[in-house]
Amino acid sequence: MTSSTETLLKDDFADAVIEGLSQRRKVIPARYFYDRKGSELFEAITALPEYYPTRTETALLDAHAPEIGRIAGPGKVVVEFGSGSSMKTPVFVEAVRAAAYVPIDISADFLRDAAAGLSRALPDLDILPVAADFTKPIALPRSVEGRSMIGFFPGSTIGNLSHAAAVDLLRAFRITLGADPWLAIGIDLRKNPRLIEAAYDDAAGVTAAFNLNLLARVNRELGGDIPLDAFEHHAVWNDDLGRIEMHLAATRDVRFHAAGETFFLRDGETIHTENSHKYMIEETRLLARAAGWQPIRYWTDARDLFSLHLWRGGGGAMEP
Ligand code: AVJ
Questions:
Q1: Which pLDDT does position 109 carry in this prediction?
Q2: Which GO-annotated molecular functions does the record name (predicted)?
Q3: Among 86, 135, 160, 270, which is least packed by CB within 10 angstroms?
Q4: Which of 186, 165, 162, 174 minimizes the C-alpha distance to 79?
Q5: Which residue puts its alpha carbon closest to atom 8 of ligand 1?
Q6: 51-60 confidence digits (pLDDT tens)
Q7: Cα(96)–Cα(49) distance, rounded to whole angstroms?
Q8: CA distance 258 to 26
Q9: What confidence score (pLDDT) does residue 316 get?
Q10: By the 8 A CB rule, do 156 and 306 touch?
Q11: Backbone φ/ψ region at 312: left (φ over 0), alpha (ψ -120 to 50), beta
Q12: Ligand 1 atom 13: residue of nearest CA
């Protein structure tokens, strides 16, 4: 990454922290979890016994990606939104017999890692990384223009967004993917809240460390003096909104500085750091249709923990 990009991203983090901590209900957006330390902690989360999404989705992809390839047809350009450094990507790319792979990420670092990892696993694959913000429709490389594309959006990352923002994102994907768009997307399902809460508040404390790293990152990058021992990790199921919420709760009245400003939290007040929405199958179909996609097929595991979906865009003649 160039130093000018780094400066821009740092300003963006500073702005988000100042804005988020100036609200009456304090928030820091979840996308800032993933610095180097945060990405390592997330990797550790995916291996926890309580964190069912990653292993369940991986098994669904192992079992059903070949069928996705058969339905959508071979030789597609696979466009991954948020470049994966996980093992899911080579499995998918290989199973659908992709002609090319386009990872898209705002972070040039993540993009480089993903491209390097994949070219090692699949040396003959044509890899065309794109550094961009995929939340808006974007232009893909000229060499894939007019070719049939399938988006890949695993991990239930869609769950971080409100339902309205999810529809906007899925519309942007459809537009980015051209005239004959397909999408393979992983979506976590609504289930017994106790299972969900355990997945986001594990016994080993890895998710707590992941959440608290956000404050450590503020201290590291924005000259903060937040006393980390004055905060604890909370994961609470919100049944009305169908989402697990992560918060950092002050365990006493606390005052600190960050990004050149002073902030104050009362004992018990929280900083809301993440929402992870869980969907019922009927809701995933509504989500697809609201964004102009047609649900083609979906697969779930035997315990109905997680779902993998194949959607197709509306034949190219659809309005944005
Ligand atoms: C990467 C957004 C899918 O919501 O399950 C894991 C992030 N947060 N544990 C999720 C996360 C706490 C994860 N996503």
A1: 83
A2: methyltransferase activity
A3: 135
A4: 174
A5: 200
A6: 999 999 999 9
A7: 30
A8: 14
A9: 46
A10: yes
A11: beta
A12: 157
Q: What is the pLDDT of residues 34-50, one digit of tens each?
A: 999 999 999 999 999 99
* Domain 52-191+279-313: assigned CATH number: 3.40.50.150
**Any ligand 1 atom below 6 A from CB of 157:** yes
Q: Is the CB of 273 under 6 A from ligand 1?
A: no
Q: What is the pLDDT of residues 188-220, one digit of tens each?
A: 999 999 999 999 999 999 999 999 999 999 999
Measured in whole angstroms, the distance separating CA 247 from the mean position of its chain's CA atoms is 18
For residues 314 and 289, what is the distance between their CA atoms, to the nearest angstrom? 10
What is the distance in A from the centroid of ligand 1 to the CA of 143? 34
| Structure tokens given for 225 | 């003096």
285 — pLDDT class (breaks 50, 70, 90): very high
For the Cβ of 34 lying below 6 angstroms from any atom of ligand 1, the answer is no
Q: Is it the case that residue 169 has pLDDT exceeding 70?
A: yes
Of 274, 278, 306, the one to substitute when testing ligand 1's pocket (max ligand atoms within 8 A of C-beta) is 274
Per domain, the residue ranges of the chain are 3-33+194-277, 52-191+279-313
Ligand 1 centre distance from Cα of residue 54 (Å): 10
Ligand 1 mean position to 48 CA, how many Å? Answer: 12
